[in-house]
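Title: Prediction job returns without error message
Component: structure pipeline
Severity: low
Priority: P3
Assignee: unassigned

Description:
Job completed but the reporter wants confirmation the result is attached to the right record. Sequence as submitted:
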Amino acid sequence: MNAIQILLVEDNPGDVRLSTEAFKDSNLPHDLHIVPDGVEAIGFVRQTPAYSQAPRPDIIILDLNLPRKNGLEVLEEIRSDQELKDIPIIILTSSHNDLDVLIAYKKQANAYLVKPSDLSQYDEVINAVVALCQ
């Protein structure tokens, strides 16, 4: 099985570390690419000059609360691009706001997962992501 190309769009270093460790612990063959904000995410998927060698992601894990361009804006921009709209996007955020969930699904997110406050549950959330990748 070829490695799954995962793009993690996350600005919180602690969440990046937890996600990285959880993916390492999974049995999923993967390459994890990390960008810290929505502008960088769009650059990555569109392979702008700074990301000219970036692979097309097989899945995007997207936080909502991002600097420069928020997750909902990124989601909308990717879904409006004919070449990118079929990439699965999982929202992984700390927001429990029902309106955020509703808007994310309206903008065609494939899944909406809330980051756990308990660090021991982080592996469970990433395992749910891994299951969606398989």
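Comment from assignee: result matches the submitted record. The mean pLDDT is 89.
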